[in-house]
């Protein structure tokens, strides 16, 4: 098939692969429980930005944030949970252990499709990953992003039975609807919600629910982007991340080593 | 099309420091004015939903501090802008003289598809001070010479013309957006003929 641009052959991706090592970190003693971690940027930053992939993604989907934001002086970490976390509670405990291991106690979190964690019933299990990989868009940026996710995420799952377990675990997590309580996070002060105006997997009620969950949240809307806006429109996403983080720049929650020129 | 797309309009405000860019945005979005000067740090934005001709559109208004600061955000800051608002202080002629370079700066960075017809709106602010050093005639002449840019004399302090100006900004931005929709919807119609290979249509989304 004639291809557009293959993101996995792009210079961005190749630079990422050759400059940011993938670490496997075991946080508890049992088998198969290692986190995959990319940690880029100055290690002296004690309050980094941590990217948590959506159910249908791997830590790699954030390569454009890892690469470009670390180049600006931010410490950027992307994590991927081990397979065999079957519920949100396990995930949270594991994540806490990981933070301990990395000696971090306060972090900035970036999650994609977080709403799915508490909104979608199991019946949507299949529709959850599949439609996001079919795009009606003619925007080359969006097509490239979808192709990249399909290649990096779905193809390996289809050929590799061990990975199926991992996928099953993620989808179970994804569907454990009652475990995350929106009212517990409602009070969060500094939240930026990124959203795209074109069609994507989240239906409107879910979207409204997320807006409601963060009444103090800042809405960063983008015209287009599809399901993987951090890949397709990464420059815009990175601008919104920088704006979000700027509030913290001068304090102990700074995610950047040298604040960029403030003249 | 049966369903109207929800619209998002990206508006960028440019002009010298102190002319009242942040105040105008705050007056429009929050209906508040503060006489105290607080320097804007970097670029930031506010959103407001408004009605334009029975249509709900979300306006995302980008405010900036000095030139150097928002350049650190890169060209992504300008990308996809639907309208650019140029602001000067009617009591300070130098801020008016800067409009040319702000306009050029925008066109170079945003690189719009059709620079000649890209929608700008000019606001002469602080009209409440009453000692305008830039006469309306002079500002209007400049606007006419730049392909008839709409001109408003505003006060962020007492809200004079602020609502009107932003309505005009939205209308102009929408007019330009509907032209772009023509480009974007064209491939959809090709699809109806049965050719579903998306990769054949990639010329349709070419950027500047
Ligand atoms: N009298 C008067 N003062 C204004 C007006 N707009 C802004 N100011 C004042 O001018 C100063 C600079 O305003 P600001 O919005 O911060 O300008 P910016 O640097 O362009 O964002 C502040 O002290 C404002 O209170 C106006 O319409 N009338
Ligand atoms: Mg300002």
Describe the 3D structure:
The complex is a heterodimer of chains A (263) and B (208). With 263 residues, chain A is of the alpha/beta class. Chain A has eleven helices and seven strands. Chain A has helices at 11-19, 63-71, 88-101, 115-119, 125-129, 140-159, 161-175, 182-185, 204-213, 229-232, 234-246, and strands spanning 22-26, 34-40, 49-52, 76-80, 108-111, 192-196, 218-222. In chain A, the strands form two sheets. Chain A has a five-stranded mixed beta sheet, covered by helices on one side. Chain A has a two-stranded parallel ribbon with strand order 6-7. The longest helix of chain A is centred in the middle third of the chain and has 20 residues, at 140-159. The termini of chain A are far apart. Chain B is an alpha/beta fold. Chain B is built from six helices and six strands, in the order βαββαβααβαβα. Chain B has helices at 21-30, 67-71, 93-97, 99-110, 136-145, 162-191; strands at 7-14, 44-52, 55-63, 83-89, 120-125, 151-153. Chain B is globular, with a radius of gyration of 19 Å. Mean pLDDT of chain B is 81; it is low at 182-208. Bound molecules: guanosine-5'-diphosphate and magnesium ion (MG). Residues 15, 17-23, 34-35, 37, 40, 125-126, 128-129, 155-157 of chain B line the site of guanosine-5'-diphosphate.
Q: What is this structure, in a nutshell?
A:
The complex is a heterodimer of chains A (263) and B (208). With 263 residues, chain A is α/β, with parallel strands linked by helices.
**Helix-strand category of chain B:** alpha/beta
Calculate the terminal CA-CA distance of chain A, rounded to whole Å. Answer: 51 Å
Structural class of chain A: alpha/beta
Quantity of strands of chain A, as a count = 7
Secondary-structure element series of chain A:
HEEEHEHEHHHHHEHEHH
- Helix percent band of chain B: 25-40%
Oligomer: heterodimer
Number of strands of chain B: 6
Bound molecules: guanosine-5'-diphosphate, magnesium ion
The pair of chains with the biggest contact is: A-B, 26 and 33 residues
Average residue pLDDT of chain A: 74
């Amino acid at each position: 098939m004639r291809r557009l641009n293959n993101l996995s052959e792009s210079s961005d991706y190749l630079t990422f692969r050759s400059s940011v090592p993938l670490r496997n970190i075991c946080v508890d003693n049992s088998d198969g429980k290692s986190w995959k971690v990319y940690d880029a940027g100055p290690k002296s930053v004690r309050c980094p930005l941590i990217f948590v992939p959506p159910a249908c993604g791997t830590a790699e989907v954030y390569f454009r944030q890892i690469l470009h934001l670390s180049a600006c002086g931010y410490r950027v970490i992307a994590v991927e949970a081990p397979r065999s976390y079957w519920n949100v509670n396990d995930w949270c405990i594991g994540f806490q252990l990981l933070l301990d291991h990395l000696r971090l106690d306060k972090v900035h979190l970036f999650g994609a499709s977080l709403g799915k964690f508490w909104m979608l019933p199991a019946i949507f299990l299949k529709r959850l990953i599949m439609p996001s990989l079919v795009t009606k868009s003619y925007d080359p940026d969006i097509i490239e992003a979808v192709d990249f996710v399909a290649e990096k995420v779905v193809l390996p799952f289809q050929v590799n039975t061990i990975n199926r377990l991992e996928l099953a675990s993620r989808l179970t997590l994804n569907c454990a609807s009652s475990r995350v309580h929106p009212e517990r996070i409602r009070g969060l002060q500094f939240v930026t919600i990124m959203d795209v105006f074109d069609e994507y997997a989240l239906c409107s009620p879910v979207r409204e629910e997320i807006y409601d969950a963060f009444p103090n949240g800042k809405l960063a809307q983008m015209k287009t982007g599809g399901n993987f806006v951090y890949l397709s429109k990464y420059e815009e996403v990175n601008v919104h991340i920088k704006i979000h983080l700027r509030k913290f720049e001068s304090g102990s929650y700074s995610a950047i080593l040298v604040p960029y020129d403030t003249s | 099309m049966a369903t109207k797309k929800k619209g998002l309009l990206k508006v960028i405000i440019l002009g010298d420091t102190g002319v009242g860019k942040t105040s105008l945005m705050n007056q429009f979005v929050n209906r508040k004015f503060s006489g105290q000067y607080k320097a804007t740090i970097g670029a930031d934005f506010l959103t407001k939903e408004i009605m334009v001709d029975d249509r709900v559109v979300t306006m995302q208004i980008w405010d900036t501090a000095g030139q150097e600061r928002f350049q650190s955000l890169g060209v992504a800051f300008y990308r996809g802008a639907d309208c650019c608002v140029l602001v000067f202080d009617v009591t300070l002629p130098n801020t008016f003289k800067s409009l040319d370079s702000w306009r050029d700066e925008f066109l170079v960075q945003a690189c719009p598809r059709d620079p000649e017809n890209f929608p700008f709106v000019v606001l002469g602010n602080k009209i409440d001070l009453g000692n305008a050093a830039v006469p309306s005639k002079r500002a209007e002449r400049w606007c006419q010479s730049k392909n008839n840019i709409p001109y408003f004399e505003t006060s962020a302090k007492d809200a004079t013309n602020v609502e009107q100006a932003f309505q005009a900004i939205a209308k102009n931005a929408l007019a330009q957006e509907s032209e772009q929709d023509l480009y974007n919807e064209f491939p959809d119609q090709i699809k109806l003929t049965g050719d579903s290979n998306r990769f054949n249509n990639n010329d349709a989304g070419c950027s500047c």
